[in-house]
Amino acid sequence: MLSLDLDQYPRFKASATVTLLLILMVFIFFPTFWMLSTSLKPNEDAFAVPPQWVPREVTLKNYQTQINDRSGFRNYFRNGVIVSAGTALVSIIVAMPAGYAFARLRFRGKRALLLIILASQMFPAVIIVITLYSLYREIHILDTYQGLILAFTSFSIPFSVWMLRGFCESVPEEIEEAAFVDGCSRLGILWRIVIPLIKPGMVAVGLFSFLNAWNNLLFALSLTTRLEMRTIPPGFLLTYVGEFQYKWSDMFAGSALVSLPTVILFIGLQRFLVKGLMAGAVKG
Predict the structure, then answer these.
(1) What's the CA gap between 202 and 195, in Å, rounded?
(2) pTM of the shown model
(3) Cα 54 to Cα 38: distance, rounded to the nearest angstrom
(4) Is 210 domain-assigned?
(5) Domain that holds residue 134
(6) ∠ CA 235-74-213, rounded to 5°
(7) Which residues of the chain have pLDDT under 50?
(8) Which of 83, 88, 133, 157 could form an SS bridge with 209, CB 3.0 to 4.6 Å?
(9) Residues 41, 156: one domain?
């Protein structure tokens, strides 16, 4: 049987690699291209058969509809920012001391508790949301920012604790021992030494929590009943899609606009994310 050694044909190997990468790039970026293309079409052209890959008639009316808040876009956007930023902040505040405790303190049942925290991620959200709805109705926090933030945070904290535990373990213990000798308390070490050293990890955890809340549909749809409290996913679903309407062009224009904050966050925090991944991958 003949075997082909690609190392003997460097040009063929390079061409095959480039071709494969191009196919992957088309596969990955085609949804983004289709979103932008449809957002620039009149709504009736979005249903054209065969589909129009490039808009025959370019229009910015769909974007003007969102910016002028004719469909509640500004309200959805504001709610999404408040809830997502609150979720990121609470997740970091809660997960930071927990991750440090699991990394440095020795106590009975630590390993079992870590596994329980990780196992909590295995429960389907649809099972939990019914209980949450009943609980929220009893304590009167339906249709509130704090209710949504608590719900989103409950799903962000397990992953955040595990991530920050790894970052804390990457800090050399010798630094903390030297601080103990100088009279620094455990809380002082956490605030003055550990947190400054693992800022990239905290940024990574905060961004994960932000995106988890920003894109969440199930909790935001189930735990809000008033239009004024809708975040972006349920707001778009109930505004642009229904039994008698499919405003694809408006929805895609809104989707393009709400994608900007995440793109800006990734670009602005890119160096912190890279440092965070590198620090979490290697233990000091």
Answers:
(1) 8
(2) 0.83
(3) 8
(4) yes
(5) 69-281
(6) 55
(7) 1-2, 280-284
(8) 88
(9) no
